[in-house]
Amino acid sequence: MLLLSRTIHFNAAHRLFNPQKSEEWNRATYGDASNPAGYGHNYTLDVSVAGVADAESSMIVNLTDLDRILKEEVDRPLDHRNLNHEIPEFKTRVPTAENLAQWIWDRVAVRIEKERWPCRLAALKLTVTPTFSVELVSDPHSPI
């Protein structure tokens, strides 16, 4: 099994705020991150696919195709956006790094499955700051 990884960067703003809770609860839970004005991050996203290289092309996936999916499913909807206001799912869901990573995983995994490539999404790492990241990893025994 081979693992192929690609890294992209995007910038987005957000506010950590649960609309079902009080301002006091949000301040106590999220601190300065609950500031009504929000704040931004320069995110780094590492996406890894696992598979076996194709006999003809010797590739797991064509990087041009993977780049297209990352552009369509991650960069276009998220780059230079306010997650709370411009991403429908985050109007009611707190855009924590954990929730954002899961949102990205769900979109990219579905697109890879639709393409019917001989690979699967294996790992995703969303780096928020140099000292904070979230990583999702698939079951290594799941079929391609």
Task: Provide the domain count.
Answer: 1
Total beta strands? 5
Taken from the alpha-carbon principal axes, the silhouette is elongated
Give the number of helices.
4
Radius of gyration (Å) = 17 Å
* N to C succession of SSEs: EHEHEHHEE
Strand content: 25-35%
**Helices and strands: which structural class?**
alpha+beta
Write down the overall mean pLDDT: 95
Uncertain ranges: none
> Strand order, biggest sheet?
3-1-2-4-5
CATH superfamily: 6-pyruvoyl tetrahydropterin synthase/QueD
Tell me about the biggest sheet?
A: 5 strands, mixed
Share in helix: 25-40%
CA distance, first residue to last residue: 10 Å
Describe the structure.
The protein has 4 helices and 5 strands, in the order βαβαβααββ. With 144 residues, it is α+β, with helices and mostly antiparallel strands. It has a single domain, classed as Tetrahydropterin Synthase, Chain A, CATH 3.30.479.
Structure described in brief:
With 144 residues, the chain is α+β, with helices and mostly antiparallel strands. The protein is built from 4 helices and 5 strands; from the N terminus they run βαβαβααββ.
Topology, please?
Blueprint: E1 2-14, H1 23-30, E2 39-51, H2 63-78, E3 81-82, H3 83-86, H4 97-115, E4 119-129, E5 132-137
Parallel strand pairs: 1-3
Antiparallel strand pairs: 1-2, 2-4, 4-5
